[in-house]
Every structure is written in C-alpha cells, then in structure tokens.
Amino acid sequence: MTHGTGGTERRTVPDGLPVSIADVEEAARRIAGVVVPTPVLRADALDAAVGARVHLKAENLQRGGSFKLRGATNLLASLTDDERARGIVAYSSGNHARGVAIAARTLGIDAVVVMPHDAPPEKVAAVGAEGATIVGYDRYTEDRAAIAASIATRDGRTVVPPFDDPRIMAGQGTVALELAEQVERLDVLVVCLGGGGLLSGCAVVAADRWPGVRIIGVEPDAGDDHRRSRAAGHRVAVAVPRTIADGQATTMPGEHTWAVNGALVDEFVSVSDTAIVEAMRFVFDELNVVAEPSGASALAALLSGVVTVPVGARVGVTLSGGNVSVSRFARLLGETP
Amino acid sequence: MTHGTGGTERRTVPDGLPVSIADVEEAARRIAGVVVPTPVLRADALDAAVGARVHLKAENLQRGGSFKLRGATNLLASLTDDERARGIVAYSSGNHARGVAIAARTLGIDAVVVMPHDAPPEKVAAVGAEGATIVGYDRYTEDRAAIAASIATRDGRTVVPPFDDPRIMAGQGTVALELAEQVERLDVLVVCLGGGGLLSGCAVVAADRWPGVRIIGVEPDAGDDHRRSRAAGHRVAVAVPRTIADGQATTMPGEHTWAVNGALVDEFVSVSDTAIVEAMRFVFDELNVVAEPSGASALAALLSGVVTVPVGARVGVTLSGGNVSVSRFARLLGETP
B317 - beta bridge partners? Predict the structure, then answer.
C-alpha cells in the first residue's frame, strides 16, 4: 500500500540524468506531425471507485494503439541521412514494433523487427501491415537484443531498442508533457511500467511540472524487477515473467531508465493478472474504451487498492495501450456467448 | 448506394424550422458545464477502408456513454423553477434515460424514467444508479408515451421526450457544432438515426457550417421508417423493429424532427445487423473504443458500402454511443473463449 500524499515540495532532480525536461520538450516538437494528441478521459464512476479525481491519459487512442509511437518517432527522426538510408532494426513484444514500423514508414526508413514467436498474432500482423520485415525468436531461450545486434552489424542498420535509450525515453515523456497541458495540476501520477521508458520520461516531466507530485510505477506481479531493484539498491533481474501483460514482460530495468526511475520514482508496486483483467472490464464498461493488459496495469493498481490516494486527490493515470483482439479480450474476461 | 459529392452550393434552409442554428449555439452555452467535449478519432486503417478522410465524432466517450446527455441537459436546464420543483418523467430504450438521469441529478431535479422490460440490463442499472425511479413497460404491446403522459398528469411532472422536442434536437445538434470547431470542413456527414433528434440538430449545424455538405441518416434495416417516409412523401410508421440496434428501434419519424430532416437531409439509408456488428468489431480492433450497435450504424453504412464517398472526401461520422456490456458485446460478436 502506498499513500500518495502529494506534498508541496519540489523534488530534487539530480544532475546528469540521461534525459532532461528540455529533451522531452524537443521530442514533442520533433514528433508533432506524426503522433496525435490523445484525450484525457474522466468518468463519474471512476472517480467514485477511486475516491479521487482521476485523469486517464488515453494512449490507447494513439496511432498504432499505444504510446510507443512517440519514442520510436523521436529516435528515428533524430537519425542522420546516412543512418536513415541504411535502415533500422528493432526488437519488441508488439507495441514498440508497431510504433517503429509506423514511424519508419512515415519517415521512409526500411525496418526489420525482431518479435517473439508467442507475441499476440494481431500485433505481428499489424507490424507486417506497415511494411516492416519480421524476424521471429523464442522469448524463453533466445536473446532478442543479441539477434537485433547481429542484424545491425550485418546490414549497417541502427538498433532501435524498446526502452533503454534516452531518445526513446524522451519521446515517451511527451505523454506527460501533453497531460501537463491538459490538466491543471496533479498530486499523484501512476504509470504502467515494463522496461521503464514511459515511466522515466514521464517522471522527468512530472518532477518539472508538478511540484510535490507522487510518482508511482506499476509492474505485473510476475515481473516486479523494479520493486526488487529498489529493495536491493541496484538493478536486479527476474525470470522471464509469465503474465497476460505481454508489454510488461521485461526481466530487468534498463541502465538509462533506471538512472532516472531510481532517482525520481517514489514507489514501485505490482498488480495481479486478475486485477488487470478487472481494470480492462472497468474501462470497457464505464469509459467505452479498450485497454490491453499492459495498458490497464496502472489503473488496476488504483482500482484494486494496491495504490491508495487521499480523498479528492488529483490523479493522473496512463492507459498506455489498447492492442488486444476481440477474441483475446473475450477469452481474458472469461466471456462465453 | 449514395455518392456524397460534396458540392459547393449552400443548401437552402426553409424558414420556420423548429430548430435554428441560434438554438443550437444557445444550447451549447447552456450545457457546457455538464457535458464534456468529445474527441474526434482518426485511424489510418479507417481511412484506408473507406478511401476517404474519416473523422469519427466519439460520443461514446461522452458522460453517460452517448450523445443523449446533450439534449436532456438542454431541456432540463430550460425548465422554470416551478417545473424543476415538480420533477420530470422520461421514456427511453436506455441511453436517453441515462442522459436524463445524469442531467436531473446534476441539476437537482427528481426523475421518473419509463423503460422497456427488454432494455439491456446494464442500461437499466445505470439509470437506477443515477437515482432515477424506473417504471417498466412492454415495448411490443404498450405505448410508452401514453404511460409517461399519465404519470406527468398525475404528478405534475414535465415530460422529457427522447427526440421529438426542439430543445432535445438543439441539444443533440451541439455534437455537430463541436465537430465544426474540431475539423476544418466536411464534404459528407453520416449520422446514426433512430427518432431523428441527433440527425435533425446536426443537419441544422451542417447546413450552416459546411456549404455543400451531403447529409446522410442511417437506420437499421428493420426500422427504416425515414427511408419509407421520404419515399411516401410524408411520415409513415413501420412495425416495432427487431434489431440489435436497441437505440434505433423507433417506428416513425417525429413531427418536429421530420420537419427538419425531411427538409435538410439528402438521403436516408439502412444497414443490416451484420454490418453493424462488423463496424463494432472494426472500432474495437482499429480504434480501441467500444461502440454499441446503435452507435456503430453510421460507420457501418460506410464500411459495408451502403454509402460510398468520393476518394479523399472529408467525412464526418457519429459514433453515437458505447453502452454495451462485455458479455453482450462478446455474444454479438460471436466470440467463444
């Protein structure tokens, strides 16, 4: 349990973090023509359930169905002409792949994407539809980063990692930058957490824009590497998580993301797959939007009581992705016709 | 088949229509604190499927899950203090009931709502949750308007009809007024059509704001009373429609709505329940939002080819509601876990 008290003191941002607020502001300008501003959703039933004023940043309504387009576009738009001509290679469980594929097509860059064999088929299909070449691997026995690195070496391609790169982190931070223009002030910010790209970028913005904000990262129970790293005082790895939250199935915090998140994030918590499913049901029923498991985890922490906030607090929550097929959705929610 | 050509001539708006553009503008000011502005959704896959630039006005993201809150709020906010004190009575298949209930609670007005026994249970529950008193009736054998009228006479309550009232029509028209602020220009406007409240209000705005726009109303095949009325040259009734589009199960155009729609709407078309289900699937898969059957009918007309538009045309489409439970949604889409 954590109590987001939302004090009024501005937190100290250490010098030398890999991403600055200026980096995020620059990313916002760079990606403006490619990403769309996403709405902030509110609902009486949501406020009642949480006992606070909850603002859902609906990145499930982003192009490509998740926030991932932001970081991918920022990195690709930062490449030199020579790098663009030689193409890129990315690795991803799904949403980063799709974001990279959209950004690459938009910017005219050839893309190869390394995806696990057990990625949701609709995510693989969506990447293929954008014109990227897909290379499969076994998530439990092979090292996707090594596969991508060997392709990069062979072809002269630039690697576009899913989270552990300051350009990716700055791009994802534009989610919070946009939110800061849409809401007046936040006491608590709750962010979905896999590798830490979204959380780190948002933490940089939150520390700058909302003095005293409490920043919370939410992992799936099976992949609580950030919580364990905080407890250990350094980055530690967990076994490959078996969770419905495929976008958060990372084993270890990134080097660059941890430099930010370790310094700025107040608390790391985790949620069960059951709590995630209930959050998916809640947003379907009460907000008429679709969240995928990874995208619903931050809200799940609030609805399940893993995170509690003061009555009436102003809370920002990322609804970070919505890429789930109708049949997977129905299966997860246990619905029979 | 209809070809929305989007000419450049401003249509002639007859004198003496029951709703003017000034009425809609006044409604927008009156309801501003209660309704939320809804986003316009776009998707590459949607543009590709239709062959045009499609702007989905997402009223499924409105408070109460549909556009109905707009008209209800406009009517209730127009009542005198004495009328407010005596309360209101409404009849509805679901979404109007919920809109009325929210508006009544917000404005502190006691509400009775007459709902059919076969209304989706989640819609009935949502109305009850807002504090309204619910009176049930049989949609196939009883006259809901007569039931509401007798309650009104008995208690001195004001009747809030679901569509055939200029204050309701003006309120629903704020959907298009808001859309006109969000998009530069439209060549074609495609609107979900039951009793005609939404269409009539939007038609008044479209005629004023988008010269040459082609206005199309979309009914379910089983409830094509507007199409038949246009063919007959006067209002005609159909049997109570059996369709999944419960919000469009009306039997006859309204008197006031027909005065507007008969004059301003270019074409009335109808879609099958199958086409509606496919549109619901499309917005789930490609836009990550939930549409109920009635709310998806306008888009269904475009996706199924019932309405065709010129390549590259700028098309506005109402996604007018999203109130469908997870289990009904899964059942309609034929999903088994």
Answer: B56, B190
Does the annotation mark A225 as catalytic? Answer: yes
Alpha carbons A241 and A235: distance in angstroms, whole number: 16
Q: How far is B243 from chain A (nearest CA, A)?
A: 18
C-alpha distances (whole Å) from A300 to each of A40, A50, A222, A246, A270 are: 17, 11, 15, 15, 9
- Interface pTM, i.e. ipTM: 0.91
What's the start-to-end Cα distance of chain A, in Å?
37
CB contact under 8 A, A288 and B41: no
Substitution target in A288, A290, A332 with the highest count of B β-carbons within 10 Å is: A288
CB nearest to B288's CB, from A61, A327, A334: A61
pLDDT, tens digit only, all 337 positions of chain B:
444 444 556 778 888 999 999 999 999 999 999 999 999 999 999 999 999 999 999 999 999 999 999 999 999 999 999 999 999 999 987 899 999 999 999 999 999 999 989 888 888 888 999 999 999 999 889 998 899 999 999 999 999 999 999 999 999 999 999 999 999 999 999 999 999 999 999 999 999 999 999 999 999 999 999 999 999 999 999 998 999 998 898 999 999 999 999 999 999 999 999 999 999 999 999 999 999 999 999 999 999 999 999 999 999 999 999 999 999 999 999 975 4
pTM of the model: 0.93
